[in-house]
Each structure stands twice: as structure tokens, then as C-alpha cells.
């Protein structure tokens, strides 16, 4: 009886089948998109470390008043480093300024970081050596630059 009804109403049957196919394809696409997004987010999180916590001054991320808050100081990083459950701590200060080398001047971002920065961020140097605790204590004027900066100043 059902086959007779399907045969008698071919257009309705075809449209119903098309609707089912489109519905299944939509569900599969949404699930695949969600899974791909989940993997990308987890990949990004694991790139900075699954147990990494960043502390910023201010009430919320992007707080415009945070730039004027001076209650988060280097001693806080030292206190965190003394905790038994903490592996690595690095303070970080970021500013923009003019970078000069010989006759080349460019505007750039400057980051002041602690000696454990590269461990915390899982960054490997392509060449050269990293500064250490002694360099930080002595306030040595040592610089680590990225490849783009190297190319800019090597002209």
C-alpha cells in the first residue's frame, strides 16, 4: 500500500526524500564544523600550555583604566613563583616605541619579560641564546628579536 502511494505521488515522495537528504547533510555539516572548531581551540590552548594562567591588572579583559593600575608589581610574580604548585612565572610589560639600528628607524612593540618567558610560552629561539636570571638581575641590555625585525635591520 505504501509503495502504491509513493508511486502515485512521485513529486511528493521526491521532495520528501530531498528534505531528508538536506536535513542529514545540514546536521553532518554542523557537527563537523563544531568538531573542527573544538579541535582548533584545544590546539590553541595547548600551544600556550594547558596549565597556563595569565594575570592582568583591571576588572576585565580590555579594561581601559588598567593601564593606570600599579598594584600588580614584580614582587607579585616573585610571590607566585615561590608557591609549590607553580612551575614557571614571568612578568611582562608591553609598550610601543621607535626602534633604531644604525640608519634604520621603525615603530615597534617592545616587551619586557622575565627569564622564564620562553619556557612559559613554549617558544624556541631560531638562533642565538636566551638571557638568564643573571641578565635580568643585572638589568643587562639584551634583546631577542623576531625574524621580521632581523630582516628590517639587516639592510
Automatic annotation (TrEMBL):
- InterPro entries according to UniProt: MacB_PCD, Macrolide_Exporter_MacB
Where does the MacB-like periplasmic core domain start and stop, copy by copy? 13-153
Please provide the record's keywords in A-Z order: Membrane, Transmembrane, Transmembrane helix
Q: Name one GO cellular component term.
A: plasma membrane
Where do the TM regions start and end? 15-33
An example of a GO molecular function for this protein is:
transmembrane transporter activity
The organism's superkingdom is given as Eukaryota
| UniProt xrefs under Pfam families | MacB_PCD
Q: Does the keyword 4Fe-4S apply?
A: no
Please state what the protein is called: MacB-like periplasmic core domain-containing protein
Upper lineage: Eukaryota, Fungi, Fungi incertae sedis, Mucoromycota, Mucoromycotina
Amino acid at each position: 500500500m505504501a509503495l502504491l502511494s509513493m508511486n502515485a505521488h512521485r513529486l511528493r515522495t521526491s521532495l520528501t526524500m530531498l528534505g531528508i537528504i538536506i536535513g542529514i547533510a545540514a546536521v553532518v555539516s554542523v557537527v563537523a564544523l563544531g568538531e573542527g572548531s573544538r579541535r582548533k581551540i584545544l590546539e590553541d590552548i595547548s600551544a600556550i600550555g594547558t596549565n597556563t594562567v595569565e594575570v592582568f591588572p583591571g576588572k576585565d579583559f580590555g579594561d581601559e583604566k588598567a593601564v593606570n593600575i600599579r598594584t600588580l608589581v614584580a614582587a607579585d610574580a616573585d610571590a607566585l613563583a615561590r608557591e609549590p604548585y607553580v612551575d614557571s612565572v614571568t612578568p611582562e610589560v608591553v609598550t610601543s616605541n621607535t626602534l633604531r639600528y644604525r640608519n634604520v628607524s621603525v615603530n615597534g612593540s617592545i616587551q619586557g619579560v622575565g627569564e622564564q618567558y620562553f619556557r612559559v610560552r613554549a617558544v624556541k629561539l631560531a638562533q642565538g641564546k636566551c638571557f638568564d636570571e643573571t641578565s635580568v638581575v643585572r638589568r643587562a641590555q639584551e634583546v631577542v628579536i623576531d625574524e621580521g625585525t632581523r630582516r628590517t635591520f639587516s639592510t
